[in-house]
Write the structure tokens for this entry.
Amino acid sequence: MRHLPSRTTRRRVVGSLATVLLCAGGLAAPAAAGESDADGRATADRTATDHSTTDRAAADRTAAGPDVKLPDGLALTPPMGFNNWNSTHCRAEFDEAMVKGIADIFVEKGLKKAGYEYVNLDDCWALPERDANGKLVPDPKRFPNGIKAVADYVHAKGLKLGIYTSAGTKTCNEAGFPGALGHERNDAQQFADWGVDYLKYDNCNNQGVDAKKRYIAMRDALKAASETTGRPIVYSICEWGENKPWEWAADVGHLWRTTGDISDNWGSMVSIMKRNLPLAKYAGPGRWNDPDMLEVGNGGMTDTEYRTHFSMWSIMAAPLLIGSDLRKASPETFEILGNEEVVAVDQDPLGKQGEVVSSESGRWVVAKEMKDGSRAVALFNETDSAQRLATTAKAVGLPEAAGYSLRDLWRHKNYQTAGGISATVPAHGTVLLRVSADGKWNAYPPAVELGLDGGDFFEAGKAAPITTSVTNLGRTSARQVAASLSAPEGWRVKATSPTTARSLATGKSLRTSWQVAAPAGTAPGTYALTLKSTYRSPSGVRAENVLPLSVRVVVAPPAGASGLGDLPWLSMTNGWGPAERNTSNGEGALGDGKPITIGGKVYAKGLGAHAESSVAYYAGRACEKVSADVGVDDETLTGGTVAFEVWADDKKVASTGVLTNAMSAQPLSADVTGAQVVRLVVTDGGDGIYADHADWADATLTC
């Protein structure tokens, strides 16, 4: 894990920035001290230099021509389990009681039955120093009975234990816990002796030693330890994707991180997903792309966003490692994590990672081939408003058929379709389907698609028109079709055209016009509308479909020029921490920024963001221009590469090229005439989001 060492509290602070960035320098590692034989006996009569030389020579041999290759029959489906880091970091609550408690919950809540298997310890489990024999020492406060006792407890539950170290001299935490560089053989043997089943091997403090050499050395050490103990260990390579491990690690590890660390916010999750999706061809049984652990349940996203997170990780055949403290988890969190139909997509034994079918304007269709010939299909809406997403059975790879069975994996209902696969998907939502050409389609009612035109925004006291649609996607007709629209108490909802239809043939729609008004005085914010349809199949089977929608009550923008740092925004996503008003981005808690400073010039007003970022404002079709001075904040010192964009509804109307910390502020102006929503977007410069502090200095909206 790599992070900017500053005032921030991102995740883990790396002791030396230079150490982190020199990942493939090929430098020799410093000699290890106080090593022990694999069986734990002290080797005081052997010098540390001699032992380090032996281990390094072995690494050199395997790097030149590996003789211990994978696959080895492990991780034939993506590993599932738990890792404490996202919820506890290095805080005192990470201890033996927590680990045992998670194991208990796996059994009690049915997560073990659903497929979750590994209970993994992350950083901070050890003391900062090895013992006199070079052995790792568990922290006696956190783990008073040692790691083996914890492993025995976990194994008794029918589960497995994972552990963490780094392919460097120290781990990633600023306390400087011992890393395994130069100690690979002994540490691997110690892990195996304890009963460890899974190793996460990080990349901090690597001394510039070639990544392949470091990770191959631990692979061979784990193999040797397995042969002496009979305990195989799943090997998770965590080098952040810096050296493209997907191109070389298939015979080194069972999974490899493809990106930097995830954070518990929408922008971080989507950015990581986008980096992982193009790597589908490298994944398969025993060799998985790892976009980092799950954030489901940690509180930084909505349940809709967490369902998207879980859906997209599953269709990408990603490892599913729970990152929330299950002792405090809500029923909604358990419902998401325990959805066995979604888990089955991730765990399909064919081992295919889903591939992008289309991704126009934030409307994503991703399809995954399944072993039974069906396709899992994710309709993912990245945008901030409800969107129609559509594809076909042919486009996702299914053969031509008279009809297709369609299973909604979140609603747990079966339908049939003539070949169209479509839905109106709420903002940040995902509809996850399993579609089959199995000949059983006629046993199910036709699928209907619910749609909505208008109604994203309401000004209190003013009626707004909405048009809803109910469209039959099935091979057979939908009969006795009815549509209804509900709103919060006190709102006025009136249909101005028919709400029923006797029958809808394939592809036909019932369209209904409505007038909807929020009462005068309704506070700005998000409110729920629900569109529902009921209908019957030709055989008389009753069916229904429901589309939950979020609409916004907004205030018209003020006339004249207004500072965007002072206006309310509709939505905000940000790579690290929240976007800040009139200060730079501090990466941590709200309000931890500094004065906006670009090229030595200080600005009193603006927005401080961190790529990937998107901040949206309601313009109400009444504004003309956005202007700002943009650039990378001086607080990043020498890092940071970003690009700025202004969007008017779904159209990009202005952008910069890639800007760096070495550049002065650049003026940016955009014509947003007629836009209902204006978005300020920051993307990274193509090298990841490390140090990407992006300032919209003196950002102004003129209406």
Notes: Confidence is low (pLDDT under 50) at residues 1-66. The two ends are 44 Å apart (CA to CA).
